[in-house]
Structures are given as structure tokens and as C-alpha cells.
């Protein structure tokens, strides 16, 4: 995933892209894939530290000569969100693509989840998508179209926005909200040249520590996934690149599953 080649061309050549949660995991994979596709990036995250280890995303991109900036951002903060979008507009002149990937989880069932934990998960995973999308759509509506669109939003939802998330009530609820919000934004702004879709990962092996990486969780996911392997961050990045590109034409309001057939079984 960390092997980069700066060709200066690609499916997102010259496009200005803002990615939340870009420091680690799926967000990091999306940033690296989009950079290779020619995007000019603003990376928004609460930290530059890579949870699964490795060179910080921003440092890696700069080493390979990619156009990128980092903005320390709590997506649950309205002022932080405004600053992130403003950074893209100030440095690149427009915002062509927003990727909403930032998310947190507490991994607890209903009776064990405190109100503070519930509020924080919903604030980041759902309110963060609302705030970022609202700021991005405002900016996109004020700019001239490129081809048929003024801008694109790609949300990272989850298969657990459609089925229960075992012992993870706040996370599943938040991702269900992201699926709905994707459809609502798509329907409300399609006529204005705004495209909004989501990519819904199944079990993705990011290398991050935590309960999701436990032997029990992996065994459960392997048993549920028809394909003979679990997902990789690049699997999600490839789907996100398609949705961010002009190749995803006449397509909006969709929630694209990248789950190895989990939801089909």
C-alpha cells in the first residue's frame, strides 16, 4: 500500500480532494490511492500518528512529491470543519471531492454503553459527516462545474449500517445514519451537479489494534465472508476512487458494498 509512483496523471488529475480520517487505516489507503491518481489532497484528521504504524501519511506523500496538506481536524467541531474546507479552497481554488472516512467505535452493547460514549460516536461518525458534507456542498455549489458535476462526496459507511454490529450499538446506529444521509444528499442536490455515494466495507484488516482485531472477531468474520480472504484497505480505496471519478456517471445515492459477499450470503 505504501509504494507510490508520481506519474502526474490519472483519474483524479488536478482534482482537489479533502479526506477525513486520512492518517490511518482505510483513510490512509484512500489518500495514497488518490494521490497516485493525480489528486491534490487535504488530509483532515485529529492526529498525524498512524495507528497501525508506519511513516505518517503526509510525510510519505511529500517524499514522493504529491500535492498535499494536513489540517488537524475534529470532524465533530463546526469550526474545525470550516477550516478544513477553507484550506482546500485557499490552496487549490476549489473542492472537487470530499471523502468522509473519520470514525470511532467503543465496541459495547446497549446496556454497557454510556451516554458520553454514545454521544461521541454519533458526533464523529454521523454529525461529522453532516458537518463536512454541509460545508463541502456549500463550497461546491459556488464553483463552476467540471464536466457534468460541481463536486462529489464519497462517504465510508459499513455493512453494519444495514445489519447489526455485534456488541457495538453506537457504531452500527451511526453507520445506518450515514447510509441514509448519503441518499438524502444525493436526492436533494443531484439537480445542482452534486453527486453523493457511499462505500460500505465489510471486514477490513487494517492492522489497527483493538477488539476488532481479536482472534474471536476475525474468526467470526471469516465464517461470514464467502470469499476466501478478508478485506484489505486497498479494496475500499479502489471502490472509493471509482465513486470519486467521472467513471461513476449517472450514479448517485448508492451504498457500494465491499464485503467479500458477506451481505449476499
Task: Point out poorly predicted stretches.
Answer: none
Distance between the termini: 29 Å
The number of E-state strands comes to 7
Structural class, by secondary structure, is alpha/beta
Number of helices: 7
Please list the strands of the largest sheet in the order they lie side by side: 3-2-1-4-5-6-7
The largest pleated sheet is described as:
7 strands, parallel
**Strand fraction:** 5-15%
Order of helices and strands: EHEHEHEHEHEHHE
Q: For the record, what CATH class applies? A: Alpha Beta
CATH superfamily: NAD(P)-binding Rossmann-like Domain
CATH architecture: 3-Layer(aba) Sandwich
Q: What level of helicity do the residues show?
A: 25-40%
Describe the protein's architecture and organization.
With 265 residues, this protein is an alpha/beta fold. The protein has one domain: NAD(P)-binding Rossmann-like Domain (Rossmann fold), CATH 3.40.50. The protein contains 7 helices and 7 strands, in the order βαβαβαβαβαβααβ. A 7-stranded parallel beta sheet has the order 3-2-1-4-5-6-7, with helices on both faces. Strand 2, helix 2 and strand 3 form a beta-alpha-beta unit. Helix 3 packs parallel to helix 4. The radius of gyration is 17 Å and the shape is globular. The two termini are 29 Å apart. The relative contact order is 0.15.
Quick take:
By secondary structure, the chain is α/β, with parallel strands linked by helices.
